[in-house]
Amino acid sequence: MTDKVRWGILGTGKIAKAFASALKDTPDARLAGVGSRNLASADWFTREFGGTAYASYEDLVHAPDVDLVYVGTPHPMHYENVRLALEAGKGVLCEKAFTVNRRQAEELVQLAREKNLFLMEAMWTRFLPALAEVRRIVDSGEIGTVRQVNADLGFKAEFGPAHRLFNPVLGGGALLDLGIYPLSIAVALLGPVDTVLAHADIGPTGVDEQTGILLRHSGGGMSVCSCSLRARLPSELTIAGERGHVRMNTMFYRTQTVTVVRADGIARTVPTPYIGNGYVHEVIEAQRCWRAGLIESPGMTHADTLALMGVMDEIRRQIGLTYDADSTQLSSTPPKENE
Question: What confidence category does residue 115 fall into, taking pLDDT thresholds of 50, 70 and 90?
Answer without folding.
Answer: very high
